[in-house]
Amino acid sequence: MSPVNHPPRRNLWLKWSARLAGLIWLLLLGPFAVLAFGDLDLETHWSQASHASTGQAPTPAETPEPLILVYGARAYNWRGAFAIHTWIATKRHRAQNYTVYQVIGWNLYRGQSVVSVSQSAPDFLWYNARPALLLERRGPEVEGLIDRIETAVANYPYPFAYRAWPGPNSNTFTAFVARQVPELGLDLPPTALGKDYLANGDLLAPMPSGTGWQLSLAGLLGLGLAWEEGVEVNVLGLSTGLDVNDLGLRLPGIGRITLSGRG
User: Which of 69-73, 118-122, 202-206, 242-246 shows the lowest mean pLDDT across its residues?
Assistant: First the structure.
């Protein structure tokens, strides 16, 4: 009886390595397209870039009701081809100022917490990149949500740690707060690289919107399923998927492409 010929393990390893490399290159097409054709500022030095208000947010004087706003803008320079920087702004009833919560990695160089809490305009340029509004909540019930946001910010587990990839970073922070306050229903786009870096090494957690669940291995490999985000696969921090709720695509670098005309 002749022996069965099995393919050598080395050939199998090479085959799967080639497939993985092909997948990674496919996922990188989005960031490369943004780098080549997107509206990125690749020339301005960070010290000369603007953080001025864009005038998008309701003014406190004209809007006495409490507000929660979440913004995202392309990261500085070439990093913007891959990711956005996100932050949360809140305003209590009849407050005269917004409070802005975000993670700023270079605070570590000054020996400070990366968690920044400041009173400022919520709709600022992020190093010349114009922000997009990701979420707005207003009304009397928002006051209680602001209380819980403040608690979540205080409990963020990485106040003295920062890594641009795969996390923890600014999007890890925003996603953490959203998971602690699922009533926000925050649907972070696939360009919020770092959102899948789960706190405390967890492998299973709610999606940031609170409408489903995700498995994630240190933000490098994962799978999510939720009503708001749809089906999302994460490979090396590059997220792609299908948004069933809004009938659209979620693409690395590019973000959300809505096909239904509703988003």
Answer: 242-246
* Spatial distance between the Cα atoms of 126 and 56, rounded to a whole number of angstroms: 14
Helices (H), the chain: 9-27, 29-37, 142-154, 170-180
- Compute the residue count for the chain: 263
Token representation of residue 162: 């920062």
DSSP state of 78: G
Q: Residue 183: what are its φ and ψ, rounded to 5°? A: -65, -20
Do 186 and 209 contact (CB within 8 A), yes or no? yes
Q: How far from chain centre, in Å, is Cα 205?
A: 16
User: Whole-model pTM?
Assistant: 0.92
Residue with tokens 């988003």: 263
CA distances from 75 to 83, 210, 256, 259 (A): 6, 25, 17, 26
| Cβ–Cβ under 8 Å, residues 27 and 238 | yes
Phi-psi region of 94 (alpha: psi -120 to 50; beta: other; left: phi over 0): left
What CA–CA distances, in Å, run from 59 to 63, 95, 132, 141, 150?
A: 6, 10, 17, 20, 21
Return the sign of the alpha-carbon dihedral for residues 188, 194, 198, 204: positive
Residue type, 262: R
CB 186 within 8 A of CB 178: yes
Q: Taking the CA of residue 247 as centre, how many other CA atoms within 13 Å lie in the half-sphere pointing to its CB?
A: 4
